[in-house]
Write a structure and sequence with these properties.
three-stranded antiparallel beta sheet, six-stranded parallel beta sheet, binds 2-acetamido-2-deoxy-beta-D-glucopyranose, 9 strands, alpha/beta
Length: about 350
């Protein structure tokens, strides 16, 4: 189990950082995770505690597809490279935002349309107006590199605001389908466990899951670290393309964007995580989403670009001709099309 060790290290790290400690401890206190799920090793997601409702409070209807970046997002988007150039500048620019962002998300506090932090999105006309975490900083947990032990937040997902059944009421109808597409599946426990568990907590229970993983493995490897009851629940719903790389060819059954356009209908809830660490393939698929994302609702993607601060973590598998300015443009463009596009970790 890595969890107790992780928690102890985390608490020690906070001993002299009392303001941060409050936010950080929150994310431990509100977590309820089944025993055994942390046996996965150091790449598993951490801190599953985000709980903010995705609907803007009070409830408002959309008139058209639109995206409204918050004040803090506008500031970062105008100076994406400058504000991410070193820790001092980055953490200075995030100061004041991080605390409120995490506290609201961890305490289930709804965001209003007046928020300076949370951005607003209308996926289409007649939809419910929604909030989404802002595009700021390194496009990951804002505590990363700004607290004394950055590694504690490398794989944190506390900062994300996922969709829920109140923003997408059709998800509670028996006529609608809820489908998750996972490109770059590695093991169930690494990321998919977080997504299906979090969506279920938010009232959206996935009924079909498609997983592509280039590196062939056997079932006990794929399910390693997953408790039996969790595996028993999700395995029958999961189609596992084991040892099959995703394709970028239009119309190919292993092109996840093609499958999304084909399978997801109006009123269905579809989410897609793209994480295959191959910039060329990822870039082509993202381009296809920009052209037509069909009825995809949420998208998660880690865009690897040139960055002094991220260099240590991303190493060589990056888009050498791109930087954070491109990432901000990309996620903004997807959000402007009504797609809840999130940066992934
Ligand atoms: C929406 O999800 C919540 C759990 O987050 C659940 O309590 C509620 O019953 C769901 N609503 C409907 C209409 O199913
Ligand atoms: C799965 O693969 C691992 C590693 O190659 C091996 O040790 C294990 O025996 C295999 N399990 C099964 C059930 O085939």
């Amino acid at each position: 189990m890595i969890w107790p060790v992780f928690a102890a290290t985390a608490l020690a790290a906070l001993a002299d950082d009392s303001c941060d400690a409050q936010i950080f401890l929150q994310s431990f206190a509100t977590q309820e995770r089944p025993a055994g799920i942390y046996d996965a090793g150091p790449v598993a997601m951490t801190n599953f505690a985000g709980q903010m409702p995705s609907a803007v409070s009070p409830k408002t209807s959309c008139s058209q597809t639109s995206y409204l970046p918050s004040a803090i997002e506008k500031k970062f988007k105008l100076n994406a490279v400058q504000l991410t150039k070193d820790r001092h500048v980055l953490c200075g620019a995030l100061k004041g935002t991080t605390e409120e962002w995490l506290a609201m998300n961890l305490k289930k506090t709804p965001a209003t349309s007046k928020s300076d932090i949370f951005s607003q999105i209308c996926p289409g006309p007649m939809a419910t107006k929604q909030v989404i975490e802002p595009l700021v900083g390194l496009l990951r947990d804002p505590r990363f590199l700004c607290l004394k032990k950055p590694e504690l937040f490398t794989f944190s997902v506390d900062w994300l605001v996922l969709a829920d059944n109140k923003s997408f009421p059709s998800t509670t109808s028996s006529n609608s389908r809820r489908i998750f597409f996972d490109a770059g599946g590695s093991r169930f426990v690494d990321a998919l466990n977080f997504f299906v568990t979090k969506y279920e907590e938010r009232g959206i229970e996935m009924d079909q899951i498609y997983v592509w993983e280039m590196e062939k493995k056997n079932a006990s490897q794929y399910w390693a670290g997953t408790p039996e009851d969790v595996r028993a629940k999700w395995e029958p719903r999961l189609t596992w393309y084991n040892g099959i790389p995703v394709s970028i060819n239009e119309g190919d059954m292993h092109n996840p964007v093609h499958r999304i356009r084909e399978l997801c209908r109006m009123g269905d809830f579809c989410a897609f995580k793209l994480d295959i660490d191959t910039p060329k393939v990822e870039g082509a698929l993202v381009q296809q989403l920009l052209e037509d994302h069909g009825h995809l609702t949420e998208f998660f993607f880690e865009h690897h670009v040139q960055s002094h601060l991220m260099h240590l973590y991303w190493l060589r598998d990056i888009n050498f001709d791109q930087n954070f300015e491109h990432s901000y443009d990309l996620f903004s463009a997807l959000r402007e099309k009504g797609l809840r596009a999130h940066s992934w970790i």
